[in-house]
Amino acid sequence: MDRQTPKNNLMDRFLNAIEKAGNKLPDPAVLFLALLLLTWLLSALLAPIDFGAIDPRTGEKLFIQNLLTGEKLADFLSRMIAVFINFPPLGVVLLAMLGVGVAEYSGYINAGLKYLLSFTPQILLTPIIILVAIVSHTAADAGYVLVIPLGGIIYYAAGRHPLAGIAATFAGVSGGFSANFIPSAIDPLLQSFTQSAAQIIDPNITLNPLNNIFFTGLSSIVVIAVGWYLTDKVIEPRLKRTTTVDENLSDLPKMEQLKPEEKTAFKIASLVMFLGLFGLFFWAYPEDSSLRSESGEITSFAAPLMRSIVPFIFLIFWIPGIIFGFLSKNYKTSADVIASMSKSMGGMSHYIVMAFFCALFIDSFAQSNIGAMIALKGASFLQSLHLPSQVTVISIVFLSAIVNLLVGSASAKWALISPIFVPMLMQLQISPDLTQAAYRVGDSVSNIITPLNPYFPLVVIYCQKYIKKTGIGTLVSIMLPYSIYLLFIWTVFLLIYWTLGIPLGLQSSYEYLP
């Protein structure tokens, strides 16, 4: 056994303790059920208390809603099916996996990985997959259902620890959610809330939807550097010391040479894929394209293109997967295609059960207003401290990271707390652009350690493909170093960025001068 340094021993003991404690928790489905019952109990206990909080979205007092009344229980039962069916990640995951499943079980993804690994230097494997994970933000939640599982497969095929690949891509997709040099739908969404909050102080102020694009673009370098170092120097060495990948993983790719018919099939299937992508580009390019919103935008949530990302992912993998399967002789009849889709859905059965209880808990937690109350009271407390501007900005990063553990949606949190943060800092001559940038840092870094992230259970499922005993504690212990390092390094980067006066984005500023 390799000799461990005291530093490694200390870190291993700390992370092993986190993993051990976390894995003592019940199955995630049972955990979400317990959290649901706890939410009901707390809502009943806290409902009579007047916390004196004003909801900035309505201007009215915010109260904890008692979910144990007959009316609320009847409403819960009547909406149960709708809450489950409309749980945002559920349809995204299942539809994408139908297409990806065909591409995987036909051998198309396997062939693509062999080509990729044939010319990618081992030393650059980690930064490249983190970069791909960051770029995936442009396609909404596609990274969760496409890039993260591929990270595990790529590492496994390269002879590296698959959970390290999952960790690296999870860090890029979720921990680096606000790091992207390509505009995405989240930019105008957050800007709309920031502008509304700023207009409380200055009704005439307008902000550019890309007011943070330079900062988020350069932040990509920070996320890649931190993820690269941690994955290769901390996470993977620890995983090799503490975990062993299960044997007999027959469904995963092997590194045998491609047969001639497989090479031909891969080239034809990939050509079809690229032709489809080019066709999609030319469909979306015209200003009057049916894939654009009524205002001509293509990256807003109102654009049909953004709402169709997952169906496009399904088709982009499903069609080439079928072509490769038949040309390579891996598929003989159409029944083989359906069998691949059924097999991919079979692997999602545990996730579907977890998603049921997760959807009910998240909906009830939002209905109770407990998370909203914590966010408002935390923001109000920060406001009452009257800290120096630099300390206030840092505090916003840390508070946003903490609130993110309780309220998953980035837009929902910002809609709630931006009317407090933005006007408060404008009175300190800090611009709304800088306040939004600070929020985006805090909102990203704790995504990867909160089980309230609706995709967190799915990542646990990805890990269990390689190590059956993987639990919530395992994943939290793997991702915690990323969260801590990103929190501190990204915050320091923001302060240096601010000190140097580098523009945050288009038409952005650091100071608010009324």
TrEMBL record:
<feature type="transmembrane region" description="Helical">
    <location>
        <begin position="414"/>
        <end position="432"/>
    </location>
</feature>
<feature type="transmembrane region" description="Helical">
    <location>
        <begin position="115"/>
        <end position="136"/>
    </location>
</feature>
<keyword id="KW-0472">Membrane</keyword>
<keyword id="KW-1133">Transmembrane helix</keyword>
<dbReference type="GO" id="GO:1902604">
    <property type="term" value="P:p-aminobenzoyl-glutamate transmembrane transport"/>
</dbReference>
<feature type="transmembrane region" description="Helical">
    <location>
        <begin position="305"/>
        <end position="327"/>
    </location>
</feature>
<feature type="transmembrane region" description="Helical">
    <location>
        <begin position="475"/>
        <end position="500"/>
    </location>
</feature>
<protein>
    <submittedName>
        <fullName>AbgT transporter</fullName>
    </submittedName>
</protein>
<dbReference type="GO" id="GO:0015558">
    <property type="term" value="F:secondary active p-aminobenzoyl-glutamate transmembrane transporter activity"/>
</dbReference>
<dbReference type="Pfam" id="PF03806">
    <property type="entry name" value="ABG_transport"/>
</dbReference>
<dbReference type="InterPro" id="IPR004697">
    <property type="entry name" value="AbgT"/>
</dbReference>
<keyword id="KW-0812">Transmembrane</keyword>
<feature type="transmembrane region" description="Helical">
    <location>
        <begin position="264"/>
        <end position="285"/>
    </location>
</feature>
<feature type="transmembrane region" description="Helical">
    <location>
        <begin position="348"/>
        <end position="367"/>
    </location>
</feature>
<feature type="transmembrane region" description="Helical">
    <location>
        <begin position="142"/>
        <end position="158"/>
    </location>
</feature>
<feature type="transmembrane region" description="Helical">
    <location>
        <begin position="213"/>
        <end position="231"/>
    </location>
</feature>
<feature type="transmembrane region" description="Helical">
    <location>
        <begin position="76"/>
        <end position="103"/>
    </location>
</feature>
<feature type="transmembrane region" description="Helical">
    <location>
        <begin position="165"/>
        <end position="186"/>
    </location>
</feature>
<feature type="transmembrane region" description="Helical">
    <location>
        <begin position="444"/>
        <end position="463"/>
    </location>
</feature>
<feature type="transmembrane region" description="Helical">
    <location>
        <begin position="387"/>
        <end position="407"/>
    </location>
</feature>
